[in-house]
Write a structure and sequence with these properties.
This protein has 64 residues and is mainly alpha-helical. The chain has one helix and no strands.
Length: 64
């Protein structure tokens, strides 16, 4: 029974490192964006509620 050992090249290790780094940065940035959205969400709702109703006239329908 032959023992086959797994061999990794430097290229393989660099690829795995890059993938892990990209996932870590995405996770950090996504968490930061969620926290920022949670912080400003009450302001957005307040602005949406306090907007006045539109007083623009209804446009005339096109004439045939």
């Amino acid at each position: 029974m032959a023992t086959d050992t797994m061999k990794f090249t430097i290229r393989d290790l660099i690829l795995v490192t890059v993938i892990v780094d990209i996932l870590a940065v995405w996770s950090f940035d996504h968490g930061r964006q969620v926290a920022e959205l949670d912080r400003i969400r009450p302001t957005i709702i307040t602005v949406q509620i306090s907007l006045p109703a539109s007083s623009a006239p209804v446009p005339d329908p096109p004439k045939p």
